[in-house]
Every structure is written in structure tokens, then in C-alpha cells.
Amino acid sequence: MSRNYAGLSRERIIVEALHIISGRGLGGLSMRRLGDALEVEAMAIYHHFPLGKEQLFNAIAAYVASPAPRGSAHAHEETAGTDATGDEQDGPEEEPVDTRPWDVRLTDWAHTHRARMLAYSGALSLLVHRAPRTPDSDATRTLMHRAFTDAGLAGDDVDRAADALHSYCVGAVVHQVRHADEEDAPDEAEAEARFRFGLRALLRGLT
């Protein structure tokens, strides 16, 4: 097995872990199996995730749950000032203010978030107990605060609306994945149409 770890990055480890989860389920992921897939010794993974599997799970949850408002769906670990691989950045870049209507902004975010979770549906159970604080999650919080404020909400109602939107997105994806193997399960076009219908009703109801 190779001892040349030059190309091994946090993002590469996370992506390979997601491939294993997709094929074997969450219980099929081990540091040894991950090392074999990456063609490195398991200890090389601990160089990037010194706290072990729980730290890796947190990073996977962040990666899956963080569609960046800028359009790139990369996520960061718990520490600000790092990029998607966990490497240091020169400094945070300010996002340009999105001037589109508030509901367009939230609809775009929701569809991106849904697609991200569906792409890595094998790791959905990690999101139940983990909500890592990342630069992308902070940017999402800012996006929602601005959008719901522009919609006329204020105070605690902004946070309540953001929670409702998050809950709808996660719940809709879990429902779709749970029933995907049923004979009368809708195809993806219909599933997306149902998501869009519910999202539109939710946003109208919140404001």
C-alpha cells in the first residue's frame, strides 16, 4: 500500500467516504476500508481527522448539508478560514448582495439543498444528530435572514421561518428516499414537482 500521501486531502477523504456509504451504508464505513479505497494506510486519514471517525462524520454531515449560496456546494469543517479541503484560506471573501426577490432566493437555495441531500442520501442519518457550524452554514443563515426580513418578517419570526424551511427540505428528502423503492413511488420529475408545490405553499404561509 502506498505511503505517498501527497494528493490526499480532507475533501478527497470525504468524497471517498460518501462513495463507501452509498454502496455499503453508513455501517459499512470504517477507517480501514476507507484507507484501502484511498490506497493509503488508515493512519494517513487520522492526519486529517485526528479525532477519528466522529470528526469524519461531522465533516461528512457538513459537506452534505451545506449548499453554498454562491452556487458551489462545498462545505467546510467547524473552523472558519478554511476551504472545502480544510486548508487555510487567505481570508473570507464577501458574497455580493443578492438583489433577486426574496422568494426566488429561498426557492433557489431550497432546490440546491434538496439536490445535495439526494445526491448523498446514504448519509442523511448523520444530519439527525449533527449540525456543524461552517462558513457555508453561516452564509445560509445570512441568506435566510435577509430574505425573510425582505418578506416582512421581524424578530423571532425570522428564525422560526428559517427553521420551518430547513425542516421542510430535510423532511421532504427523507420522505422521498424512504419511499423510493415502492412500486407507486413518483419519478424524479414528479418528486421535484411535489417538492416545488409544497415549498411554494410553505413560503406563502410563512409570510
Q: What this model shows, in words?
A:
There is one protein chain. With 207 residues, this protein is mainly α. It is 59% helix and 0% strand. The chain is built from nine helices and no strands. Helix 1 crosses helix 2 (31-38), helix 1 (10-24) crosses helix 4 and helix 8 packs antiparallel against helix 9. Mean pLDDT is 85; it is low at 70-89.
Helical coverage, percent range: 55-70%
Mean pLDDT, as a whole number? 85
Distance between the termini: 58 Å
What is the strand tally? 0
Report the sheet with the most strands, covering strand number, pairing sense and barrel closure. Answer: none
> Would you list the SSEs in sequence order as H and E?
HHHHHHHHH
Low-confidence regions: 70-89
How many DSSP helices?
9
Instruction: Using the alpha-carbon principal axes, give the shape.
Output: globular
Radius of gyration: 18 Å
Strand content: under 5%
Structural class by helix and strand composition: mainly alpha
Summarize the SSE layout with pairings.
Elements: H1 10-24, H2 31-38, H3 42-48, H4 53-65, H5 102-119, H6 126-129, H7 135-150, H8 156-178, H9 188-206
Helix pairs in contact: 1-2, 1-4, 2-3, 5-7, 5-8, 5-9, 7-8, 8-9
List the defining traits of the structure above.
207 residues; mainly alpha; 9 helices; 59% helix
What is the compact description of this entry?
By secondary structure, the protein is mostly helical. It contains nine helices and no strands.
